[in-house]
Amino acid sequence: MSQKQLMQDSIDHHYYPVEEGVLINSLDIRLQEIIKRQHPDITEGAFISHKNLTYYRLLFLEEIIDKANRKNDYVREAVYDATKHQGYTALDVQDQLDRKITFGQRIADDVARFGGSWTFIITFICFMGVWMALNVMQPFGIAFDKYPFILLNLALSTLAAIQAPLIMMSQNRASDYDRLQAKNDYNVNKVSEEGIRLLHTKLDHLVQQDQSDLLEIQKLQTEMLASLTKQLVSMQEEQARLVGQIEKMRGSEENV
Fold this sequence. Notes:
two-stranded antiparallel ribbon, 4 strands, mainly alpha, rod-shaped, transmembrane helix, transmembrane
């Protein structure tokens, strides 16, 4: 049987079959750097066995994991630095205004609320109808405001003159509420936007960095499995060769 070609391992200087190793220049650049870091005298065309290469592949795997952990720590610290100064919390604007409301503002709100309801309209129409009916029909022989109802016009003018500023006061409070609500919405939207931006940063890091590292680890694992498969096949071939030699020797002994 033909003798297998042997090559000297540049790490332990033992001889191994060619199938049980690779040339260093065929490896990943970063893996080559790890080997040359510990053995600076190794040339690019040197041979290394799979047995010794496994150790450096594990070192390479540890460096990838350590690098990924440092990246994750950096992103985590960056997110923390960006969020630790965001102490704003959403406010209940209505509750904030209600705590500061004065007695006059409360009256203005009640007047505006009642003056803009159907209850006020129907009640006021009924009141004017009764007023005019009493002064026209005079069921008790008394007319305290004869036609053209000057006293009623004066009462209506007075009511309008008093009601208008009260309604304006209530509208001013509504404007203050809208302004504070808009400011609160702006701050909430600003915090939400910053949170979404940081979330995109994390996702980009996950897709671009972690996924790349994961693929590199899978590639390294595949190479290690392939080298183990080659070693297993080589051992099986060696075992078959030895079995064949033993059977040949037994046959020779039987013929003798």
